[in-house]
Amino acid sequence: xxxxxxxxxxxxxxxxxxxxxxxxxxxxxxxxxxxxxxxxxxxxxxxxxxxxxxxxxxxxxxxxxxxxxxxxxxxxxxxxxxxxxxxxxxxxxxxxxxxxxxxxxxxxxxxxxxxxxxxxxxxxxxxxxxxxxxxxxxxxxxxxxxxxxxxxxxxxxxxxxxxxxxxxxxxxxxxxxxxxxxxxxxxxxxxxxxxxxxxxxxxxxxxxxxxxxxxxxxxxxxxxxxxxxxxxxxxxxxxxxxxxxxxxxxxxxxxxxxxxxxxxxxxxxxxxxxxxx
Length: 277
Ligand code: DGL
Known about the structure:
By secondary structure, the protein is α/β, with parallel strands linked by helices. It folds into 2 domains: 8-99 and 211-270, 3-Layer(aba) Sandwich (Rossmann fold), CATH 3.40.50.1860; 103-208, Rossmann fold (3-Layer(aba) Sandwich). Helices cover 42% and strands 16% of the residues. Strands 4-3-1-2-9-10 form a 6-stranded parallel beta sheet, sandwiched between helices. The protein has a 4-stranded parallel beta sheet with strand order 6-5-7-8. The longest helix is centred in the N-terminal third of the chain and has 18 residues, at 50-67. The chain is globular, with a radius of gyration of 18 Å. The model is unreliable at 232-237 (pLDDT under 50). D-glutamic acid binds at residues 13-15, 17, 43-46, 77-79, 120, 122-123, 151, 187-189.
């Protein structure tokens, strides 16, 4: 347990993508405080060996929990979730929630049985995505795009760098040609690109990500542990949505303003963590 007066949730990603999930958690649980932890020193996880992802996730999250005890951990990264969840659950005492591409809800929503799955090159290749498609979307035509540029473009948004729309358009050409009406955002960075994605694929009717489902799961878990998630009586000034944002590498330029724009004003931002101490 966090021991703090409000429930506290640690949200972890390799970069700023997990902020899309943190925003959903904050919307559902405005009284909860968050610790945001990004392993941006090793970003992107998709190009790291699995052993490195496991080792870094376990070490960083365990260290963060020592310093900032939390009531639940959200691994808001598809890559880390597919690789490291069992390892994390073996060493961490509080509940750990992972994220999976929302293939099931997308298959239930599509009207023309044509789905696009947008993910990182690593996630697109994983056998577990094949299993999700086999289990839930076997009646659909499924197009997959695993493009390395999208996570970088999402990271650029914090620095105020505009998404290169023409490059995005060509990255998504196969989904346009396939006439998909539903797209799964299988990487937590991608909801941050939603305006540009919509511009690129105006025919798509349903954009499906996992943020709300994760937020509901966190709410349920906190209720199970008896932590109050009632916003009544909380003083916003006393309880900013993000108690601390921790980056293993340099603090991304413009991050405080970017987080504030998502409604996730951080009280404190730390970089080069855990440092030498
Ligand atoms: N946000 C991460 C995900 O959902 C980015 C992946 C990466 O770092 O490669 O997978």
